[in-house]
Amino acid sequence: MDADVIIIGSGMGGATLAASLAPTGRRILILERGERLQPSAQDRDPNAIFGEGTFRPNETWLDGTDKPFNPGNYYYVGGNSKIYGAVLIRYRAEDFEPIEHFGGSTPGWPISYADLETDYQAAEDLYAVRGTITEDPTEPPHSGGYAHQPVPDEPDITELRHRLKRAGLTPCSLPLGVDIDEWLDGGQTTWDAFPNTGEGKMDAETGGLKAALRHDNVKLKTGCRVASLKTDTDGKISAVICETTNGTETLRAPIVVLAAGAVQSAALLLASANEGNPNGLANSSDQVGRNFMNHNCSAVLAMHPLRKNRSVYQKTLMVNDFYLKDGNKPPLGNIQMLGKITGSILAASSKLPKPLANLIAARSFDFYAMSEDLPNPESRVTLKDGLIKLDWQRSNWEAHERLVKELKRKLKAAGFPIVLSQPFDRRTPSHQCGTARMGDDPTSSVVDSFCRSHDHENLFIVDASVLPTSAAVNPALTIAALALRAGRHMTETEFVS
Q1: Predicted TM-score (pTM) of this structure
Q2: Residue 198, SS3?
Q3: First to last CA, the chain
Q4: C-alpha dihedral over 467, 472, 474, 477, to 10 degrees?
Q5: pLDDT digits (tens, 9 = 90+) for 323-344
Q6: Rounded CA gap, 86 and 131, in Å?
Q7: CA 468, 322, 126: angle at the middle one, nearest 5?
Q8: How far is residue 393's CA from residue 375's CA, in Å, rounded to a whole number?
Q9: Are β-strands 237-244 and 225-231 bridged in parallel, bridged antiparallel, or unpaired?
Q10: Per-residue pLDDT tens over the stretch 28-83
Q11: What is the rounded CA–CA span in Å between residue 481 and residue 115?
């Protein structure tokens, strides 16, 4: 055997699980198709990031109409978290229960918020989250507080807080995995959508993976793209086939963990079909690849022609006034700040003339409106001619339109006469999840509540693919909490000697 546990993927799920298992002393091998991001002149260059797509993969997927596109997923040590906005927020307690939405209803989870609370607390500690539990009325119960104070508002965001309160909203601090002084030492930019090559942002590499690799029993193998999984006659995963620069390698371990992300994990399971599993591995339920969800999101820019926004990073506030049910009204979603949009970012991403982009960005307060996408078995990942086909069937759009309308109304009441909005298109990955859903019933789900495959007892899946619902907040902390829960379960059931 090459290890006691093989983990495929070093993103938030894989890295956190490795950190959980490392103290057991078991040999853990993490496989990552990418390499470590190295510091470069492009790290803080908006044109390189947003205009030239320097950090995007050289990869093509198909959409639902078989039209090719370049996905905005990233293959580095740390996965997509290397580029993320470092928002580490808990799902609200109500998100684990069935909820009626404008576009339908969510099914609820096989576990409750209370079942995951201690893991949320542990994940917040592992990722050194900055936050407070006193500001947001939708905040669920915490067994402990945050170890660090919130990332401070900049002066113009402090003024924005006051304006939003006067307009009747409840602005509160975003829980963030950011050491702001360390981040700004690397350049005067926001961290949102910027690659992390230092220690300022707590991502899967600087958080979970760094903790795991302190143990000599944990190894990381980069440049290793897993092509398929093999099974034995008992239905267990018997081998991991990966492609490297040295050719094809076969690796074996008693436990295999898949943590490649909602799209790639589903694609790998489907690509591993064999005689005993003609529809793909872990897929006796025919649910692998189905129920793909991607948040409904829009950028909303609020401006006053006579006021400038001098903020550098901006992303410290959120508003959840429209998140949960209000009387008989279904929930609409979460509002948070985007990382500060500059003229260079706006020009690179929108093709506006630079002078106009500078004029707009200097005066804009930039918001991110996010609404829940509901699970739909026809929204799915499949394979076609060797390519990934992602047919996202967007849902609950009425709720999102209402959220953007409410936000615009409140921003105008807060003193911004000009409010513009732009929805994110289908090519933008906005918290992809759901393709290997968790559940108690093996006929309608892929893994159990501890992320173990119903079909293969030595296979676990610990990434966003297991989320039964997308909620309307960033999923990174929930992925980490589920990985810690799975790690505790594995330690108690698989490593008993």
Answers
A1: 0.97
A2: coil
A3: 18
A4: -50
A5: 987 666 899 999 999 999 999 9
A6: 12
A7: 55
A8: 9
A9: antiparallel
A10: 999 999 999 999 999 999 989 998 889 999 899 999 999 999 998 899 999 999 99
A11: 10
Domain range spanning residue 324? 5-493
Which residues have CB under 8 Å from 338's CB, separation 6+?
192, 299, 314, 315, 366, 367, 368
| Helices and strands: H and E segment counts in the chain | 11, 20
Query: Which regions of 50-141 does DSSP assign to beta strands (E)?
Result: 61-62, 68-69, 100-101, 104-105
Neighbours of 213 (CB within 10 A): 18
Question: What CATH number did the domain enclosing 407 receive?
Answer: 3.50.50.60
Cβ–Cβ under 8 Å, residues 482 and 259: no
User: 471 with 373: CB under 8 angstroms?
Assistant: no
CA distance 252 to 239: 5
The span from the CA of 235 to the CA of 251, in Å, is 17
Specify the residue for token string 């690799």. 213
Structure tokens belonging to residue 149: 């104070």
Could you tell me if 300 and 341 are in contact, meaning their C-beta atoms sit under 8 angstroms apart? no
DSSP code per residue over 430-463: SS-B-TT-B-S-TTT-SB-TTSBBSS-TTEEE-S
DSSP letter, residue 327: T
Q: Residue 406 and residue 413: Cα distance in Å, rounded?
A: 11
> How many residues in total does the chain contain?
497
Q: Per the structure, how many domains does the chain have? A: 1
